[in-house]
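FW: tagging you since you asked about this chain on Friday. Here's the raw sequence from the shared folder, copied in full. Didn't touch anything.
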Amino acid sequence: MGTKIKILLLFIVIYSYSFSQIKNSENYICTNIEELNNYSDINEKIRIIDNGICNKDYQWNRDTLKIICKNNFYKLQNDVKDIVVKYCAIEQDTIISYLIYSKNISQQDALFEYLKIKSLQIKNSANSYCKRLSDYRISALCILYLGEIQSIQFFNDVKSLKDASCEFALLGTNYNDEVSGIMDYIESTGDYVNDGLKKFTINSDIVRAYGNNEELARQDLIRQLKDIIINNK
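HL: got it, structure written out here
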């Protein structure tokens, strides 16, 4: 099978999968955050997210709640505040203050309660990232843009970084982490400046499709990987 035919087939596989995920969803009500704007009541939006009606993973729910709840936490109904706290979708100090007054407990007990909630949140976030990182479209994209041999090197390089994401929800320095993670490797940031994905040569057939601009092709690969890993698309 010729290289161009392989590339065409990979494009079809990647994008037909993305379309089918939306088309086959029974809960098309809010597959993206913009569709939640159909609901004017912020409490209703949060309940919809928590009930799983958006057909998204835990981390998408948490990221969306962080956007919706910014500067709005104290306006929420009490049961909805509990949902936001469960996802750790607001600052630590706000959660601890809320726990003190809602549960009538000491600051020390509230801190202990927060640490239990935070531990569960990290576990759930890590599970989300692990599932995203196992999405077969990542392998397909790497083979498409890098070729088989370079793809093997890529996956060998990121193995320990993927493990850190699966265990601790670690992504990288541009994602509120203090140490470098898998997104630093992909975006060539943190400990991987002038390294990571930047060191690979993009498939020449792909480069031609981008007007012989290799960097443009590389940035589009990064964008697509980020959509899967970060944006849950």
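FW: The chain has two domains: 32-131, 137-229.
HL: agreed, and The mean pLDDT is 88.
FW: great, closing this out.
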